[in-house]
């Protein structure tokens, strides 16, 4: 295909995406920060320092744009009719886990239609294993009925010991970033010494937390109830995990762009370390599918023992078409390249207390929440923990009730809310001050794109940007909590109240990077 023909196809796809994803408003505007150029390719504006809205399209299973697999069934489990089916399900999972993998997969355990009472956690700790129900609604659905003492329904995590594909040939290497400034959104940087590094290495980019940076961020004077609060302790570091895609001279190119900036003025000494690391102990190619999880109603504070639903820590894992009812702090993920697709959390029992549970906790890098939803009051629909490095993407998600979706604490970076609906609540990228235990600046380089919410609090941290673009709902100013200071600077507000083209930033970035088929692969 000629270059001009490819540009025409790409432009047509971007135009199609501009009317997709349930658009209910005409797209009469373009963002100055990202918009389609004359040749159909996205054009990005940068800050004076070179920062840009990052390419979020690397989020999701296998780095984005790859269809979730259909894994053959190797074991089928039927409800026993007894009081506890945990052991029966676990035995089937363990049997499939012991099978040799074929093309990365061992097989699926199929739960037949019906009710499976479970009083303990079901655990998947081998790669290539899928737990699949027969449906999450109607007469055919498979229900994990949680009972007994509060517990987690399903855990996906590696066992102790070494990963199957880990070898003894590892040799350590460490260097320091040489650039005076690395902009957010960058794919590469220069280091002082490349010795010991090779293409394919997993690296940790350790951004030091210096007293100079803490003071620059105005996080050195947090006080609550007369007591000093610590945002992030000086002498620690925030870590971004990446793989080396290319090396030229002393320049390292990464597999996924950086979600944060690195300014040597505030990070030296000791400077930002780049450390070759062993591949983390994670399971991969594990899925949870077509399942209903239900716990007893929990009208209690989340500080008390409670039932939770899913914990997935792995790489290239997924959950899809899972309906979860009445659990609390329901879904949390860790690792890299995780997709949650059409995962729904509903709660009728009202959570008690001012501190709220997080129904989705996307504490992973390269994670995609696609068409997920929650209906509940007095919750965080979404909340990131401290130091999480994006891309973290919420695409076409819907949250009903009076809750909030927010970056929760301590400098996470690179979250995108893309066409999300929060009609009775809000979305926040803000300074939380001394809330919690000194949560402070919770997000940098975050984007709210073509969303609809009751209200937003989007603020600009020192030396960083958060964007509110093409979104509908009240934009609120706010001071730092537990203080008497003036309202903090608002983020960059672009085309407020008027949606922009492209309708979906994530899907358009995905189409540009990998082509139209990548968008079709994930169901668009």
What does this structure look like?
It is a single chain. With 524 residues, this protein is mainly β. The protein folds into two domains: 73-161 and 282-508, Single-stranded right-handed beta-helix, Pectin lyase-like (Pectate Lyase C-like, 3 Solenoid), CATH 2.160.20; 174-277, Elongation Factor Tu (Ef-tu), domain 3 (Beta Barrel). Helices cover 10% and strands 38% of the residues. It contains six helices and 40 strands. The strands form six sheets. The protein has a 26-stranded parallel beta sheet that branches. Strands 11-20-14-17-18-13 form a six-stranded antiparallel beta sheet, with no helix packed on it. A two-stranded parallel sheet has the order 1-40. Strand 15 (223-224) and strand 16 form a beta hairpin. The radius of gyration is 23 Å and the shape is globular. 51% of the residues are buried. Mean pLDDT is 93; it is low at 1-25 and 161-165.
